[in-house]
Structures are given as C-alpha cells and as structure tokens.
Amino acid sequence: MDYNKYMAEPYKIKMVEPIAVTTREQREAAIRRAGWNTFLLTTDDVYIDLLTDSGTNAMSDNQWAGLMLGDEAYSGSRNFRNLEATVRELYGFKYVVPTHQGRGAENILSQIMIKPGDYVPGNMYFTTTRAHQELNGATFRDIIIDEAHDPESEHPFKGNVDLDKLQALIDEVGAERIPYICVAVTVNLAGGQPVSMANLKAVYELAQKYNIKVMMDATRCVENACFIKHREPGYENKTIQEIIREMYTYADGCTMSGKKDGIVNIGGFLALNDEELYQKATSLVVVYEGMPSYGGMTGRDMEALARGIRESMDYNFIAHRLAQVQYLGDKLIEAGIPVVKPIGGHAVFLDARQFYPHIPQDEFPAQMLAAQLYLESGVRSMERGIISAGRDKSGNHYYPKLELVRLTIPRRVYTYAHLDVVAEAVKECYKNRNNVKGLRFVYEPPVLRFFTARFEPIE
Ligand code: F0G
C-alpha cells in the first residue's frame, strides 16, 4: 500500500458538495462586507474553507446510517448508552456527561472545580478553555516548554509541560489553590503539537504527589496518539487504541469537543473518574445543556459521535490525516515560506511575524495575512495571534509570541489537489508581501473578540 510518500485516501467519495468559485472582484466586496475578518465571510464567498477543523468533518456512511437510529427520548436514550459505553471502553473513564460541544464541558468543569483566586496551569491557553477558567475567577498560567513559543524549534513534542514551571507554580501559590492542571493533547495554538507519553506520565505523578487533579483537553487526542506512535520509542508497534488508553491512565478526566477527533459536526462531553465530581457535573448539565442523557445533543448526534469515536481509532484514518497536513506543510517549507515547525496535527500555521516583519503586532499582521490569502484565492484561514489572545484584566492586549495564520484541514473533506491550490496561493501572497499594510479595529467585542471583530486597512 506504500506507493506514495503521502498516504492516499483510505476512503472513496460517495456524495459531493459543490463549492463557490469566485472572482477577485467578488472577493474584494466580500472581505469588506466581512470587516476584514475571515470569521464573518459566508460559505458562498469561500472556495476552500480552512477556517477550522471543528465540526467541518465528513462523516462516514456508517455514521450517516447511525443518524437513522436516533432515539429521541427525552431521557434514557439508547444512543447515550452507546456513547457512554464507547467512551468507557475506548478512553477508559468511568463517567460521561454529554454536552453540546467542547466549551459546554469546559463550562461545567470550570464551575465545579474552580474557586475565585485559584490558578489553573495549562500547556498553552486555548481561547474558550481559558475564558471559562477566568469567568470562574481563576488565573491561567502557561506551563508549556519554551520551545513551544519558538516557531523554528523542531522539538518532536512541543506540547510538553515544563515540569519546572509546574513545580514553581505549586511552590509559589500552594497546591490547594490549584484545582487541576489542564493538559491539552495536542496543543492547538502551539501549532497542533503533541505531548509525549513520558511527559503525560511525569505530569500525573507530580500532580498526584500534591493531590492535584489532571484534566485533559481531549479534543485532538487521536492526533496526539498517532504522533506518539510515529515519534516515541517503544510505541511504534502499539495500536492507536492502546496508546489512547494509556494516555488516559494519566488523567482524572477530560473535556472533549467531538467536533474534532470525534469526526462529527456537533457534540462533546465531559468524562470523569470521581463519583462526587460526576454528581456535581450532572446537577449543572441540566441547567446549561439538558438531561444527563443528552446534554444538548439529539439522539442521532450521540449515535454519530459514538461511531465517530470508534472510527477515529483506525490507524489508516489518522495516518492519512496527518499525511495531508504534512503534505501542505512540506510544499510551503520547500517554497521557503515561514511556517511553524514541525508540522502539527490539524493545521499548517503560517508565521505572520516573519511573513510581514514590517507590520507591528498591534496592527494585526496575522489578521491581515488571512484576509490577503482570501483575496488572492478564496481560501479561508484563521488568525491565531494577538486578536485571538484578547486583553488582560487591565485592558491591555496580550502580546503572544506566536502571531500565526492557521490553515486548518477538515477531516476527510479535501483532496491533495485542493492543498496544491492552497500552497500556490500562499506563495503568491509571499511574493507580494512588501506591499501589504496592517489593520485597525472598527468594532471590538469584549470577550472572544476574534469571532466578531471588524477592521479596516491602515492606509
Ligand atoms: N479545546 C481545544 C483545543 C479546541 O481547539 C477547541 C475548539 C475547544 C477546546 C472548544 O471546543 O469548539 O467544541 O466548543 N476549537 C475550534 C478551533 C473552535 O477552530 O480550533 P468547541
């Protein structure tokens, strides 16, 4: 089967969805209507949509068949029982609380565990995760290794926790003010970078010593498992499922956005081992999401998610996904385009600081690069830099080291030919980079501003 350097699709196409082919003139009008924010473009404006890999997956025929078995009972749906049994079997947690998507689980976890004045350490922040921690009165502390903030570092596990940083925080604030450590596998904003098994184990051992819980952000855990298989000695002959099971022996629970490695369009859950925490979570899920047997999902959504989680354990599925992302990354590296290295699991990240060194960070180089790529080609990408990072409590911008544009590959949706188009468009933007200026805010919302902010070009 190994004829190609990049693994060919382990599936064939049964249904197609036409996409919009637009002119430059149409795109100029569209980006102005969208306030220079790619989040505000509509599908009819977009040719290849690399905004996100979240909820944009193509489901399998088996998942679509599962939709027909939706049991829409208000309580006790058999699809929930299947989802619960699947998570128990494949992830190994005892209790499952369904939620409408990942942030629903983050909301509940943050509310049941955080007291005002607490600290939550994490291996780099994620937008919604940190927002829920802060809304509940916690301060987030970044404990990822320094290499994660350096786009050039080729460290194979750039998502790793720096144990010294974790120890230093425990010494500084005391273990009783750290309700849990949040470990993301993989780390989205570091570039989709994995955490090694050895590091997960070491974090858990240190946490146990101080009676601190470890909660994983499981959103892209299958990508993480595949990187462990490819990169960590001793795991090359293990199955994805075996690796996932071992990863979760180093956690007390997890939040999951099924919209990524669950290969569905909506859904998520909170999984826990502690019965008392589970009781607290179920008493909140009824307030925010719905009955503990559906949590904001329909029966058919839960069936698709259960089946998606099982499919995600297939090595061919995940190896092909990583190969597609690597393919795009390699094309850009060959052309001398500055990207985050090594290439991560779900996306290729352009380094906007190096792309537009003449645009200061508070004139939003990554936001502008995403807009330019759209104008060039109809390819939609996403800013992951200063706009995503938001403002601190005193109203100043956070200035993240990484100022990136994310080209995110949905699962099972695009072909290698689409990725060729993306690579050519990025190269064209790179050629024209010196003529581009920055942006300023026209409208800035108070939280998670990147979703709905509007801009205009600085003349
Ligand atoms: N954790 C991580 C690491 C994520 O990437 C996301 C979502 C969430 C949690 C929240 O999950 O969207 O289901 O509520 N990331 C999307 C993205 C939005 O485009 O990266 P959700």
Description of the molecule:
This protein has two domains: 24-53 and 315-457, Aspartate Aminotransferase, domain 1 (Alpha-Beta Complex), CATH 3.90.1150; 61-312, Type I PLP-dependent aspartate aminotransferase-like (Major domain) (Aspartate Aminotransferase, domain 2). The chain has helices at 24-33, 61-67, 78-90, 102-113, 127-135, 163-173, 197-209, 221-231, 240-248, 275-288, 299-311, 315-334, 352-355, 365-377, 386-389, 416-431, and strands at residues 48-49, 95-99, 119-122, 139-142, 180-184, 213-217, 253-257, 268-272, 347-351, 379-380, 382-384, 404-408, 439-443, 454-457. The chain is α/β, with parallel strands linked by helices and 459 residues long. A five-stranded mixed β-sheet has the order 2-8-7-6-5, with helices on both faces. A three-stranded antiparallel β-sheet has the order 9-12-11. The model has no long low-confidence stretch (mean pLDDT 97). The relative contact order is 0.17. Helices cover 39% and strands 13% of the residues. Helix 4 packs parallel to helix 5. It has 16 helices and 14 strands. Helix 7 (197-209) links the parallel strand 5 (180-184) and strand 6 (213-217). The radius of gyration is 21 Å and the shape is globular. The chain binds ligand F0G. Ligand F0G binds next to helix 4 and helix 5.
